[in-house]
Every structure is written in structure tokens, then in C-alpha cells.
Write a structure and sequence with these properties.
The complex is a heterodimer of chains A (531) and B (155). Chain A has helices spanning 2-23, 26-62, and strands spanning 103-104, 140-155, 161-180, 183-196, 205-220, 223-232, 265-276, 279-287, 337-345, 353-362, 384-394, 400-411, 432-442, 444-449, 452-466, 485-498, 501-512, 522-530. By secondary structure, chain A is mainly β. The longest helix of chain A is centred in the N-terminal third of the chain and has 37 residues, at 26-62. The relative contact order of chain A is 0.09. Chain B has 155 residues and is of the alpha+beta class. Chain B has helices spanning 3-17, 28-35, 105-108, 133-150, and strands at residues 41-44, 49-54, 57-68, 73-80, 86-94, 153-154. Classes of the chains: A mainly beta (531), B alpha+beta (155).
Amino acid sequence: MTATALSAGLAHAQEVGNAHDKSNAAPSGDVALLRKLEQMEQRIRVLESQLKQKDNQEIARARGQAPAPAVSPADVKPGKDRKDAEDPSKPKLAKDQKGTTGWAKPDWATPASRDLTGKTAPVNRPNSIIGLTDSPVTGMSIGAYGEMKFGLQQNPAAGGQWQNGFDAHRLVLLPTYLITPNIIFNAEIEFEHGGSGFDPDDKLHGTAEIEQIWIDFKMIDQFNWRAPGIDLIPIGYINEHHEPTAFYSVQRPELYNGLIPSTWKAPATSVYGRLADGLYYTLQASSSLEDFGGDFGTRTDANTVPTGGYAAGIDGANALGFALPVRGGFQQLSNDVAVAGQLSYSPPVLPGFNGSVSAYYTPNTTPRGAYAGDAGMPLGRSSLTMFDAEFRYRVPNTGFEARGEYVYVSFGNPANLRANNDSDPTNNVGKTMYGYSGELAYHLPLGNILSSDWEMVPFYRYTFQNTQPGGFAGTDLNMPTGAGQTQFHNVGVAVFPSPQIVLKATWQKVINRDPAGANSDSVLGGVGFFF
Amino acid sequence: MTSWVRLTLPAAVVASVSPAYAVQYLTIDAAQKLAFPSANRFVENGGLTWKAQAADRLLGLFVVDHVVGKHLYIDYAVSLDPTGRVMRVEILQYRESYGGEVREPGWLAQFVGKSSSSPLKVGSDIRNISGATLSSLHVAEGVKRILATYGSRTR
């Protein structure tokens, strides 16, 4: 810049010198030349002070101080004949700022100017509505989510009789605390079915539990550690994103009720991170699923199954619904540790598409002291492998959304599963279980009502689940009723007065191969929130 | 500029841009240089905004703000050109364990070119991020608020 200015100045001096030489005698040529030299010196001084000031700003910022005033040109005298400098009173604007029909340039869009006193000209500050600090928020924040359900349901235990009902299914509190900028505490405290209590007049038979509790150590983009706590198993999408605003039906998607146990959580520790654009991973070790579904209080002090018979945790009717590992009191019934992994991907080439693949493996689900029948032969080890692939695609610039999922479970040694050895011939488990679902939804904006933008999402979901495909083993007779093959049709609408609250209505039709029928249809409404 | 500044400045920009660790991705300084590489002055304009200038030529406005993700703040920066349109959005700090997908360059690129007349509505001109619904909604709302304050005005 200096060189350019010098050469420009020199060229200019030459021109002016020539002009003067033409009109005047020799002495004024020297005077003009001297004046030009002075102006060049002045220009160099201006440039030097700009550079110095920039350096000062950078040093001040590096030291964490407020930057030095933008201009400190106390030693700069604006020369009257300065041709290279711009007139400070006329802001230089990009051409497309002026003349655009109907639009004025923003208030701030004038360069910071310098007046003769050397201070920056005062700027009209627009009303500032943004935060005054850029330091992290400290302190605790508590969020919540919950869902309430009500309507008409067929009760299969009452021969399919239609019954009215209401369930305050969940209220979950979500305390979050930034312990340090890199260490975050998170928990979920859940009350189910209205809570739990002892007084008969309260009529409570629900749950109060710690659904999640963990501390994250955030290290680098690619690697972060979640310290041992209670965490969700990273299988599929809905297990981890199960707030009522994440799915459109009143009840959670069917594959996440039994095949993937409802809110599958376990004592666990994991590492997770971002591998590339849109590609995230999780690797987790957790306490294993257990093939014991009986009353908690019946497990012995020796941490074995009780004598005299016990209920299975894994069976052909409920899949893995009763196989959750224990999370308190050191009362796990085995030493087995499971591993799980998930890769989730939003390919940059396909905006609006999210998908994941995940897998879970435990070397053994059989609890200590497991046996057949009421006092029969001991049951040996049986491993379990689960695989899930799912996607969600919101077609950009349209209201269309599609979701699809496939889940597959494989049992290492079904002969050692309690359900195949409990004298019940109808609940047996084969070598595998599987299920799949497909869903179509459409997002319809409803406009601004009551100070927020409402949205309506009609949807249809089809689910098929096979929890008894055959390949039975074990001591039981095999007489499956056909209830193991089930189809679910869900039609309904979810209305979002804001993304944090949802009003739902769903009609569900359930069909299975049981000659008596599934008798589980329902028409339900729901209110859900998440903030 | 003297030659030593010319030689070291690109290296300084590169070094300051690479994220050090998960929480603080960019300092304000580094984000300013990313957004306005040819600027040599950032003039304070009040309330965490800076005018980016090259000497007396105005390059744009650099605004720092924060919004809530799920429960914790996300610090982010929006750069506007002199007509009040978005040039760039950067996430400076993301603290939570979930929803970090708002940092994906493909998602942030949607804001480029937006003006105060753009709807900036998640699900309409801004894609939602499955699994980061609240973070994406709040960042979009924040950019919209910044455009309402600092973007171009109707006459």
C-alpha cells in the first residue's frame, strides 16, 4: 500500500508539476513539487498510524481488554489537498444499497467516520435487544416434558370391551447444570401414571423414578465421555428422542413398546462424538438385559432368582418389555456387561434426511440361579443381539415427511430362556424377533393463533411385529396362539400450537393371528409438552 | 501493509479457525476474521455488534448473540453485508449434549442471503433438524430477531 501511494503520489506530482510548468515560470514548479512531497509524507503518516492502531487493537483483544478506540489520529492532520483520501462526510456505499425500490439501507450502514477532533463520530445505536454478555450461563435450568392420554380403548382382558379411560402417563423433570464449560450434568426425574403412594385414598400405583442421570465431559468434537450413570440405550431414534413432541401418535411407536423396551435405560457409560459433517457416533457399555420379569422384591439377597418359579423377562407376548436391567441397590442378577453402538447420519447431499443404524449385544441374559419350571434343571447362558435401522425424511420446501424403521433381535440359545421353560406353552420365544414400520405425515401451517404459529400434522403409520416366528426350543410345549404376529394401523393428527406443545388424536387398529382377535383397538386423545 | 503482516495474517486466521474443543468452537475474534477476511478494523457499534471495515470502506456488521438450545445457551454470530442481508452464521459455543447438529455447515448455509423480509421459519424456508428441534428453532428465531433489528428497513 505504501509503495502504491508513493508511486501514485509521484505520478501525481509529475502531472501537477507539468501543468504548473506550462502556465507559470520555473520558481512555482519547485513550490508545487515541495507541496506534493509534503502531501505524500502526510499520506504515509496516515497509513502508518492506521497500521499501528490495528496492531493496538489486536494486542488489546488478545489481552482480553476492550479494544482501543477505533481511531486515534491525534497526530494526523487532514490535509486540504488530499486527493487519495475519501471525503469523511460522504459515506461510501456499495452500489446496490441505493435505489433498491422500497428498501432503505440499515441504520448502521455508514462507515465509522473521523471528525477533525480525531474522535470517532457518534453512531446512532439501534435499540439493542440482545444479551449484554457473551459468557456462559451458569446455574441450573429445569425443563419438563409430559403426556396425558384419554379416550376409548378395547380392554383385551375384558374380552375386548370398550372402556373410557384417562392416564396421566408421564411428567418428567429435566434438571440441567453447566458445572464447568466442559462438564455438564443432566438428569430426568419421572413420575408415571400419576405417581406412586401408599395411602389407599390417593389411589396411586404408578412410578417415581430416575430415568436418566449422567455427567458429560465434553473434550473434543470427535470424542466426549459420559461418566457412568443411568442412560438410554442408543438404539433407533425414539428411544432417545421420546418426548411427546417427537412423534405424532398418542402412544409411542409400537416397535418401542416391547421389541425395543419402552424407555430402555440402564446403568451405562459411553463415548460419543462427531466424525464428519452430519455423522455422529455413540459407543456404550451397559448393564445387561435380564431374563427375569417377576416382582422385584422376590429376588433373593444373594442376587438370584427366587425359588418356586418366577416370571420370564423375555417372552413371546411382551418381547423385551420386562427385561430391563436393575438400576438401584446393587441388585443386578448377573455380572454381564452389554455393548451398544450407533451411527447417525444426515448426509449433506440430501438435506432433510436423517438416518441411523444401531446394534446391541449382550453375552448373556440368563440370571443367577435360573431354572426350568418350579424347581427344574438349571438354565444356561444365552446371548442377545439387536439391530436397528431407521430414517426420517422431511422433504425440503414441502410439508411431506416419511419415516421407516426395521428392528431385528436374535437369541443365542433360546433353549435357555425362561419363557421356553416355564410350563406356559403360549409365550415361547424362537430364535429371532423382528418388526418394521413405515409412516407418512404432512405438515400443514395453520397460521398465527393466540400469538404463536400453529401447525397440523395428519399422519398414517403401519407397523408389523413378529415376536414368535418359530424356531422354539426348551422344555415347554409349543402352542403359540398367533398373537405373536401383530399389525398396527395408526391414523391421526397432531396439532402443534408451538413446537413445545402438542394436541393429538389417534385411532389405532390392532390385528393379530390369535383366533380370539387382538381386541386392542383404541381412539385416544393426548396432550403433550416439552420445554 | 508491511510484508511481515501479509505473511503471518493468513496463518493466524487458519490457526484461530480450527476448533480447540467441543464447547468453544470459535472466539469472537476468530469468527470476525472468518466472516470478514479483508477487514482491518472492527469498530464497536454498541451491544456486542461491530462494524467491519477495511480502512474507511464498510464491509458489514458483525453481531454476537445467544439463544437457548434445550436448556443451555448457544452463543452464535451473524454477519450482515451493508445491505442488511446475512452473509454468514457461525456457532461460537454449543454447550449441551444433544442438538449440536445446528453446527453443521449445510444447515447454517441456509441463512446466507436472508433479509429482514425472509420468513425464517423452521419447517418452511429453514429445514428442521430431527433430534435438534428446539435448537434449530431458537437459532432461526435469533437470526430473525437480529435481522429485524439490524437488517434493511422498508421505507
